[in-house]
Amino acid sequence: MMNNKKVVVIGGGLSGISSSVFLSGTGCRVTLLESTGKLGGRTFSFYDEETGLTFDNGQHIMAGWYRNTLELIGLMNKEPKLKFNPNLEVYFRDIEGKQFEFHSRGDNPFVAVAKGFIDYEPLTFKDKLHLLALRELIELDVSDRLLKGRNLEWLLGYLKQTENLKRYFWYPFTYAVFNTSPKYVDAVVFLNVLVKSFEKFGDLSLIVPDEPLGSIFIEPFTKYAEGKIDIRMNANVKNISIKDGSVKGIVLENGEEITGDYYISAVPFYNFKNILDTEILNKYFNDLSELVSASIVSIYIVPVKMPDNFSEKFYHGMVGMLDTKVHWLFFKKDYICVIISAPEYTVEGYDSISKEKLIEIVTEEIRGCFPEFRDMKVKRVKYFKEKRATFLPTIESGLQRPESATGIKNLFIAGDWTNTGIPATIEGAVTSGKKCSDLIKEQIERER
Ligand SMILES: Cc1cc2nc3c(=O)[nH]c(=O)nc-3n(C[C@H](O)[C@H](O)[C@H](O)COP(=O)(O)OP(=O)(O)OC[C@H]3O[C@@H](n4cnc5c(N)ncnc54)[C@H](O)[C@@H]3O)c2cc1C
Q1: Is the CATH number of domain 6-45+212-288+394-447 3.90.180.10?
Q2: CA 178 to centroid of ligand 1, rounded, Å
Q3: What is the pLDDT of residue 2?
Q4: How far is the CA of 432 from the centre of ligand 1 (A)?
Q5: Candidate of 73, 222, 426, 432 to mutate for ligand 1, largest count of ligand atoms within 8 Å of Cβ
Q6: pTM for the structure as a whole
Q7: What pLDDT is recorded for position 163?
Q8: Every domain of the chain and the residues it spans
Q9: pLDDT band at 1 (very low <50, low <70, confident <90, very high)
Q10: 275 CB less than 6 Å from ligand 1?
Q11: How many angstroms is it from 335 CA to the middle of ligand 1?
């Protein structure tokens, strides 16, 4: 049902896409402004002519608890091709090539995970006894005073988690979910993720898309938007013009002015600072100085020949690496994707390792851990470093993450960095967009 209200969304990443899709369902007329020539922001795929393969800017994993993301995907695409096991299934390899497997089994997530730990080979009887301390977490509330001002490293110590538990479970888990090491993770954000992962059967599962990100988000969105959402590419917003406590319009770099009834900023924090006048920023927002970016290095290695069906040996070809520079590996049909999470915070001596040296080290680690690749001949290597892949979910950043509703009555903020309570993730971005859509819907109702 059309309500004739016009909403201008700034930024065509997942938070902007989510805002636009959820809003278009409420009957608003949506204009989406994207500064570059491509949608998707930090999630995109591209075609590599030399190999004829399509790569993502980095392998993205999702989880069963990504409820808003799964809803968005379902709205845009009636038949999404996401296959996943409702239980948590993870494979690990150590530097000597020894493989360990974690399988949670059963319908009750707590019992399933407990069984997974009981059977998890690298843990000793003593390690397993220390897991009992985790019962205390179940009773904790995210607002519990115990967690205030504490990081995950402290919490693991408080819960007497052994070195083995940290090495074989907590550290790989932290790199994957928070893109950094435990000392940079606010214990409250950690507990939020844990609570979401245990809400119901299936929440714990890992979703590793077999398709490129473009096929999951961008192509379905472009199709969905036809006739519903006005998408304007290469529309770089220079300024959000604010007067008397409300937005009067948007000024593009080319001087064009765009107006609407409501406005959503869905750009990252480092861009947000630039599209508002300093006095507006000072009056309505804090200085965002505690939001600090963390990088992700993704290295795609294309061997001359991949061993047949190799990716099928592991859950969606995914392997957690222990004691190596590489954190996670993804074996695909034609190539290997290597992930190093926030190396500037997680890899000792990273600053003095050149890109070429890192590729060499990583290739050797693969050869060492996987005998099948010992004689691997490499056809092509693609190296990506997304310098501002995520922000560090520290205690300090948590104090500065803004709410979606602002002091400016027709301006809302989306983006993975806003106060969703979860780390910089696809789900954080999508949730923030949905939140803005809900707030605008409520405001329209109130103003009726
Ligand atoms: C390599 C990598 C791996 C990742 N892995 C995972 C993972 O495994 N799981 C997971 O859940 N998350 C992962 N993430 C995080 C996830 O991709 C991001 O949290 C999410 O995509 C952020 O979406 P966003 O809309 O908030 O911001 P962005 O994607 O940054 O989108 C912002 C958009 O705004 C546009 N813009 C900026 N300024 C302006 C302006 N002035 N005018 C108009 N437009 C503007 C930008 O061009 C961009 O398109 C990963 C990120 C990276 C980079």
Answers
A1: no
A2: 15
A3: 63
A4: 12
A5: 426
A6: 0.96
A7: 95
A8: 6-45+212-288+394-447, 89-204
A9: low
A10: yes
A11: 24
